[in-house]
Task: structure prediction
Amino acid sequence: MDVACVRVRREAGEETRRELARDDLVAEDYEITHEDGWLYIPVSDPAAIPDEFAVVDRAAPERETQTTPADLLGDEPSYERLGRAVIVDEDDPERACEIARAIVESDLPVDTVLNKRSKIKGETRVRDWEVLAGDGTDVVHREYGHEFALDLAEVYFSPRLATERHRIAEQIAPGERVFDMFAGVGPYAIPAAAREATVVAVDVNERAIEYLRENAERNDVGERVTAIDADVREVAAEYADWADRIVMNLPHSADAFLDAAVAIAGDDCVIHYYDIQHEDDPFGPGERAIRGAAEPAYDVTVETEHVVRSYAPHEYNVCLDVRLRRAPR
Result:
């Protein structure tokens, strides 16, 4: 069958494969093929491939030696991958251990298997974990060419938002001033800085800010990132009228911080406002909240209404890309 492949000269093949593997972009279910001095490396997410690589559709045989957890269990378990960690969500301890054993014995590149033990809780949005295999909750996650160290027991991180974070990063132009109001370990801030923006990143979780600083250095953007451990409302006045772009990724309660966002916004500023709402009106509450906070000081234009993912039955995680232009005085 035809699959998306990176096409690369054979002499550069191993280096390219390693680079793609670091970002978990190699489609392990398919064989790498070659023809006329070219290698064709199957990839799992064509949209995530850096622009420097050529992506083509090509027939690739399925790997016959790849053993999956489903092969060992006889059914398809539910899990997600974060770096070399695998996360499961099982209430039944026996089933959780059974899945963990199958994951470890499979051909997945895994060091750690973790089971969710609680819902996200508290101001810092962390949860409790059970370590089913491996040594702890520290992971290194690679995403769109960037690397993030984090401890899942101490910070919030969702690998499911990778495509959304990339969507925002692609909009950022060199020289922009970007303010990330709820920055975590830097998955929005660091790609923004990599695109030569000046970034201010704020979070109430001290450990998240420590990891953000480490990750900024790890990704060679430390000079362009200012990381602040604080409630963003406490520092908004210091950055009044500063931002060209603001990221508000705090669904459920971002509306409580809109006054701070408006204070930080410059004369022409885009706000990426994340929300969780019922399917009957997923975008209306967010737009009304933004208009209520920004008008009449700003003219408000909703440029994009975007469903990020399904969050719960009849509820969506959404993003509104909203431009604020200061009204004539």
The radius of gyration is 21 Å. The longest strand covers residues 298-312. The CA atoms of residues 117 and 129 lie 5 Å apart. DSSP finds nine helices and 17 strands in the chain.
